[in-house]
């Protein structure tokens, strides 16, 4: 009887511990999902101002999200902050040159410059 009771207690403890670890994973993923959703929303807002078609919108959104996440992951590296941002910006601008037409690229640069000025202040 004592062994059965011990087995039940052990099983309950194991079950509760496992459910706690799964719920912590879900909270972390929810925060990452919310951040990703904000980046996508921001990219779509910029894309609407530029006037992109569906293919350009998809390419722009992927490049924008990749750039923002790359800046975030580079924060722990030993490079100076301005150098990290410049590396990400150069790659992002090169992708935009491939994706956007001349007029769209000029609109993008103007919007992007305003956005960068807001982040600095």
Short description:
The chain has one domain. Helices cover 89% and strands 0% of the residues.
Structure description:
- This protein is mainly α and 121 residues long.
- The chain has one domain (36-120).
- The chain has helices spanning 2-50, 54-74, 81-99, 102-120.
- Helix 1 crosses helix 2 and helix 1 (2-50) packs across helix 4.
- The chain is elongated.
- The termini are far apart.
- 8% of the residues are buried.
N/C terminus separation: 70 Å
Order of H and E elements: HHHH
Structural Rg: 23 Å
Low-confidence stretches: none
Count of individual domains: 1
* Multimer state: single chain
Instruction: Tell me, rounded to a whole number, the average pLDDT.
Output: 78
What percentage of the residues does DSSP assign to strands (E)?
under 5%
Q: Shape, please?
A: elongated
Q: How many helices in DSSP terms?
A: 4
Count of individual beta strands? 0
Tell me about the largest β-sheet: none
Helix content: over 70%
Structural class: mainly alpha
List keywords for this structure.
121 residues; mainly alpha
List the helices and strands and how they pair.
Blueprint: H1 2-50, H2 54-74, H3 81-99, H4 102-120
């Amino acid at each position: 009887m004592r062994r059965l009771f011990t087995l039940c207690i052990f099983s309950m403890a194991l079950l509760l511990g496992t459910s706690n670890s799964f719920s912590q994973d879900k909270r972390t993923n929810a925060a990452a999902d919310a951040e990703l959703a904000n980046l996508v929303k921001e990219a779509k807002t910029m894309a609407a101002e530029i006037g992109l078609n569906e293919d350009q919108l998809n390419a722009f959104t992927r490049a924008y999200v990749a750039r923002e996440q790359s800046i975030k992951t580079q924060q722990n590296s030993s490079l100076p902050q301005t150098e990290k941002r410049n590396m990400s910006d150069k790659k992002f601008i090169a992708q935009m040159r491939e994706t956007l037409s001349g007029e769209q690229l000029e609109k993008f640069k103007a919007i992007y410059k305003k956005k960068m000025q807001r982040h600095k202040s």
